[in-house]
Amino acid sequence: MSTIGITNPQFALLKAQMQTSPKAQNTPTPAVGAALSAMAASLGSANSTQKALMPSLYTPIAANEWAFVWGDPHFREADGGRFDVQKEGKFNILKDKGISFTADFQKVAARPGQTIDPKNDKRPTVTKSADLVIDGKKIHIDAKGKTTVNGKELKNFDPVTLGPDSSIAKTIDGSILIQTGEYTILFDSVGNGNRLDFAVKSGSDGVSADGVNPSGLLGETFDSDNIRLTKPKNSIDSYLVNKPKPGPDKPPSVESELQKLLQQIITMIQQLLLGFKA
User: Is residue 74 located within the same domain as residue 207?
Assistant: First the structure.
């Protein structure tokens, strides 16, 4: 896999294309019309002792589509729609067979001398780090672009094989390029290491050739429809992977226990009075 030719200007050009260009068109292979023609020819030539061969009618889902996340963070999803995510937390970005990709969104650091009002904190969130598990290998990328694979730092021009169809490499400009059987993922450190921007591209076979559909904030937008989203498909909290666990039940207060006991006594007295009347 060649990575040397990717430069920061090319990444900037890719970013501009993701923000302005319409959705890339799918290229079905084989085309449905050609497959139907082949089926008709096969059925027409088959005799009573032969079985017609059924050609594959599989049309790749979301093939050769791009999705992009940049800034604070702005999402340009695979169908071309756009939305922002301003909540802090670790979010599921893409989950599919053999790959899990999460990103940590945090508020930008306060400026020297800046006073932050917790009730009215208008600082934007940015991507501070990304964590991926690809074919069992754990990858961590921080905002400065430092990348580790299973705890070992990734060096320039030193591609690492992750699995049979997956690899990772750091390019000459420090961008991180990941290739899997279904996706190409590119990371770029921006603003002197203040945030990560990243792009995800589906392969020519689409995202469902392996029988598994992707999920996640970006993953679920690689779908069979052309609907351009203006917000995530589900509530933003549903994508959190570090949801706070519910705390233990509070012990009952003395006052509530006394009220419960008083109610039991009243009930017993009422039953006794009813018994006397009977």
Answer: yes
